[in-house]
Specification:
about 270 residues, mainly alpha, about 0% strand, globular
Length: about 270
């Protein structure tokens, strides 16, 4: 969670020198090279074909979709605003996992999940002056694709070591990422600074490689539902980083909404089917 909580501040730094498509594809290339190197060095066999569709969902959700959509959102949204909206991720992950596995959560679970969604929607509308912004739409889409990637990865981590799940997802995206990076860097303005480079390096090595590697291993050991409880800390940590690292000023609604969402998530985690 510490690695993930720094993702939005690092993205903001990276956007100081690169465009959103460049940030997304370059971080994918660097993380893909790290993953491919580890897989090759350890001579890890290619996963069975029956696991490829699940790996494709992981890649689409956590390697491509979530990074791209949140990067596009952070062009206009503050990191604090994005942290509160994405704080709904544990609920969407749990809901997707329930639907995917056929489990039937209790009415309390769905009531708390719906309340959390209403809180986030109300916060987004309040912060944007009456209607969700384009950034909010990007963040909402990011929630959906990331939830699918997390839940599917947690399921795969029961059959593959967790680090191999994200490792193969990153390695499989490498050719597409390399092509996309070449096109994006040529099409978007580039102004490399130490801050921008540091942001990109952290996104690739910290958030997309190391963070996801440890995350999927944890989900494989404890299960998706229990692991998602750790996400309770992520929004609040990101709010702290937004103030300490970026100098953002929090509106009173931001921490209040974040705490309300955390309460809703805590209720869903305690609800029984």
């Amino acid at each position: 969670m510490t690695a993930f909580s720094l993702t939005f501040p690092a993205t903001t730094w990276a956007l100081e020198g690169l465009g959103p498509w460049s940030v997304t594809t370059v971080r994918m290339v660097l993380a893909g090279l790290l993953a491919s190197g580890c897989l090759a060095a350890l001579r890890v066999p290619v996963p069975a074909r029956r696991l490829w569709p699940g790996l494709a969902v992981v890649a689409a959700g956590t390697v491509i979709g979530f990074p791209l959509l949140t990067t596009l959102a952070l062009q206009t949204s503050s990191t604090a605003h994005a942290a509160v909206v994405v704080g709904l991720l544990p609920l969407t992950t749990a809901a997707y996992s329930a639907l995917r596995t056929g489990h039937r959560p209790s009415g309390t679970f769905w009531a708390a999940a719906a309340t959390g969604a209403v809180v986030v929607l109300a916060f987004a509308v309040h912060e944007s002056g009456g209607a969700p912004t384009t950034g909010d739409l990007y963040l909402g889409a990011a929630l959906l694709v990331c939830a699918a990637g997390y839940a599917e990865g947690g399921r795969l981590a029961r059959e593959l070591p967790g680090w191999q799940v994200i490792g193969w997802a990153l390695a499989g995206c490498l050719p597409l990422a390399a092509l996309g990076a070449v096109v994006a860097v040529q099409a978007e303005p580039v102004r490399l600074t130490a801050t921008a480079l540091g942001g990109v390096v952290w996104l690739a090595a910290g958030s997309q490689f190391l963070g996801l590697l440890v995350w999927y291993r944890g989900m494989g050991l404890t299960g998706v539902a229990r692991a998602s409880q750790l996400q309770l800390a992520q929004p609040l940590l990101t709010l702290v980083w937004s103030v300490l690292l970026l100098g953002e000023r929090l509106t009173p609604a931001a921490p209040a909404a974040a705490v309300a969402v955390l309460v809703c998530i805590a209720v869903t985690q305690r609800a029984r089917a």
